[in-house]
Amino acid sequence: MNSKKQIIMIAAAGEDNSLGKDNDLLWHLPDDFKRFKRLTYGHKMIMGRKTFESFPKPLPNRIHIIVTRDPDYKVDHDDCLVVHSLKEALDLIKNEKAYIIGGGEIYKQGEQYADAIELTRVHSTFEADTFFPSIDNQIWKVIAEEYHPKDEKHKYDFTYLTYGRKN
Left (φ > 0), alpha (ψ -120 to 50) or beta: where does 42 sit? Predict the structure, then answer.
């Protein structure tokens, strides 16, 4: 077991860094959903309230740490913790791996704390109201990439990009 705290931002974003519109995804990529599940399964996930509310129900075998400014916000589910700042969320991560899963504002705040970024780059542009922050190539470098062409289940081609911090 890795005994060091590791914070990973995970997202799927269009070429223009589009993430979503009206609190919904802009595409349906089943293989990306499978990858998200495989990477986050068994780990803590930090998210904003709107991201959490976009799920039909909490995702199985993951602790959901929900960041909201609403002091009265409550979630009645064992796998959900409500906090009121990103710092408070990060304080709940001990010597373990955790994922920042959105939305746009949480990604902006979380980038400075992230050790890695798992980005699915969807090769198209979209009309969106939420965006992933631009990745600064002075700070981040691609350490792995895997291209996935569009097919009968995937309307867009996309690339899995793993970024690590430059030293």
Answer: left
CB 147 within 8 A of CB 51: no
- Residues linked to residue 151 through DSSP beta bridges, in sequence order: 154
* Contact assessment for residue 67 and residue 47, using Cβ atoms and an 8 Å cutoff: yes
The rounded distance, in Å, linking the Cα atoms of 145 and 161 is 5
Classified by CATH at the fold level, domain 6-165 comes out as: Dihydrofolate Reductase, subunit A (3.40.430)
Token reading at 124: 């198209």
Per the rule left: phi > 0, alpha: psi between -120 and 50, beta: everything else, 63 is beta
**Domain definitions of the chain by residue range:** 6-165
DSSP string, 109-122: HHGGG-SEEEEEEE
pLDDT at 3: 65
Structure tokens at 72: 């009265």
Contact of 160 with 148, CB cutoff 8 Å: yes
Structure pTM?
A: 0.95
Quick: pLDDT tens for 115-154.
999 999 999 999 999 999 999 999 999 999 999 999 999 9
